[in-house]
TrEMBL record:
<feature type="domain" description="NadR/Ttd14 AAA">
    <location>
        <begin position="14"/>
        <end position="173"/>
    </location>
</feature>
<dbReference type="InterPro" id="IPR052735">
    <property type="entry name" value="NAD_biosynth-regulator"/>
</dbReference>
<protein>
    <submittedName>
        <fullName>AAA family ATPase</fullName>
    </submittedName>
</protein>
<dbReference type="InterPro" id="IPR038727">
    <property type="entry name" value="NadR/Ttd14_AAA_dom"/>
</dbReference>
<dbReference type="InterPro" id="IPR027417">
    <property type="entry name" value="P-loop_NTPase"/>
</dbReference>
<dbReference type="Pfam" id="PF13521">
    <property type="entry name" value="AAA_28"/>
</dbReference>
Amino acid sequence: MEEKYKQHPSNIIKVVLFGPESTGKTTLSEQLARHYHTVWVPEYAREYLQRKWNNERKTCEPNDLLPIAEGQMKLENELTKKATDILVCDTDLLETKVYSEAYYIGRCDPVLEKFALENTYDLYFLTYIDIPWEADDLRDKPGERKEMFSYFKKTLEKYDRNFIILKGGKKERLKTAIEHIEKLLEK
């Protein structure tokens, strides 16, 4: 049963865009996928939660997190098969864990936590909060960007993840990300 949260084995490089809401993760995911002629894994939570909002006018609840994690890993595992040398992930289960803890007073389902820590990636790009926050139906923490960024950073440090902080505009972030991916490709 828990297999649905597990990464399938692969030899490709996997990078994750990681950070608070409205920090350019999706834009950069698309740019990197185009640059490397590969696919990118969208954030399943956005689709799931937008559908929930549209149908029920409800936001995320703790019982949504495992279905979100399952959908995210299903997408990632499917798209891994279609990727070239690199898979760009707009998020991962570790990000879902961060949001679970931030929104639900430190709580995270043990199954989600297990796979958030077991699934591995070659590099995380932690997106900084230096771009304007944009409102939508799902975003709700414009006043907590510094705190959320700090929480994301501390999580990467706590679990000893390889990460780079991306700052600046779209072009600068893309250039920096490509430089670091190229280093991975050289290995």
